[in-house]
Amino acid sequence: MENGLISVDRWAKGSSAYFLTHLHSDHTIGLSSSWSYAPLFCSRLTAKLLPFKFPDFDLSLVRILDTGSWHTLSPSPAFPATLHVFAIDACHCPGSIMLVFRGEFGCRLYTGDFRWEPSCEKARKAREMLVDVVKDDVVDVVYLDNTYSNPIYDFPSRQLAANRIIDIISSHPDHDIIIGINTLGKEDLLLQIARALKIKIWVWPERLQTMHLLGFHDIFTTNTTLTRVRAVPQYSFSIDTLEALNTMRPTIGIMPSALPWVKKSLQKGELLSGSFLTSRFKRGRMSENGVQIDKQIGNTGPLDKFHEYIYSVPYSDHSNFAEIEDFIRLVHPATLKGIVSSSSCYIEPMYYFGRLCRVNQPIRRQLHNMHKRVEAVSPKISFGGDNVKSERNKGKNLKGKFLGVRVSKLSIYRRRQRGVKIVEDNSLDQD
DNA sequence: GCGATCAGTT
DNA sequence: CACAACTGATCGC
């Protein structure tokens, strides 16, 4: 397999520069404390958090990409090309960025994981920044966070979901509250809860350290006697946990996640015809006045009750279908590639968004026609993880058949790694 | 011990 | 069932 000049969220040897969009573990497969192949570019906040995840990481490799300005890598023995890169807040988790690259290969945008809601001020600013960056150029390729690039995925803004969660908590004034979170992300949700209910929030000790690194000093605590709201690792959040807790004190759990809600719709057989939840949230989104709608949503019945003690609220850090569509319309790239391909609901992004691309239109470069396209002798860039099924998996599947075990077709495609390889058109390396 | 991969969990 | 994100077991070195 070819290695490119640069890699994004991909940590195999062979590139001259590596880019990290954010610190979730599905984007750091292959990265470790002892990794040292080449300089690593990331946001300031990611750089700050990096040693916490990888304690002995060689920090002399780290290069900060502040958002809002171009950074240039000039030719040198270590980096044999000129590359311009621009980082923009992806609003996915603290430190997350999307990246615009300009080089011999043209202009390419790697979204990383992102959520840009129209109602989010930070996202609006990021969006303006992107408009400014690409306004005089054509984006040749968008590498897209296509996690939910299927119209069946429709869920409300994080603001609406947060309000729903706050309502659930305030309607259980005598209950302890457990909220499942991961090692990074959903801080805004917890902040809003703390602010709205004027309470502190318990987190586990490592998470408190993260909160301190993120600059939150007075909101979180590791002292259970100071608050009835606790954010716990999602991994330790289960029906059993909640049932055990309820033998001690009345406790409810809240799962801030988009998917159980999809599941619920599926169970009701309403998914394909448009679920009641979908239409409910659509009404909310179409309204001009978000605040009033918040209350409407918040006051609706226990539609998100998942279990006797558990509520599931569709709080997602990935863009929903409508937001992705809006994003593609905005960027209007020549073509698109998904960075996730393991989903059973996966549909080639061009299927839905191809009409928003320029593939069938004349591509006219304007100001930044920096170069002619050189016939690539070899791929110049290789981004992200590859999403090609491995020989090993194929073998495993065959074995399954041989033993008469019914192996899910999906298992062949199971890939946890995120990201994509970027190579020159028509020069895809074969595995 | 380390990294890579697989299996399994919410 | 699925998803993203994570933990833990296992294998090879």
TrEMBL record:
GO function terms (MF aspect): 5'-3' DNA exonuclease activity; damaged DNA binding; endonuclease activity
GO BP term (any one): double-strand break repair via nonhomologous end joining
Keywords: DNA damage, DNA recombination, DNA repair, Endonuclease, Exonuclease, Hydrolase, Nuclease, Nucleus
Keyword DNA damage: yes
GO cellular component term, pick one: nucleus
Coiled coil region boundaries: none
InterPro entries: DRMBL, RibonucZ/Hydroxyglut_hydro
Cell compartment(s), UniProt: Nucleus
Domain DNA repair metallo-beta-lactamase: 218-336
Homology family: Belongs to the DNA repair metallo-beta-lactamase (DRMBL) family.
Record-given protein name: Protein artemis
Organism from which the protein derives: Crotalaria pallida
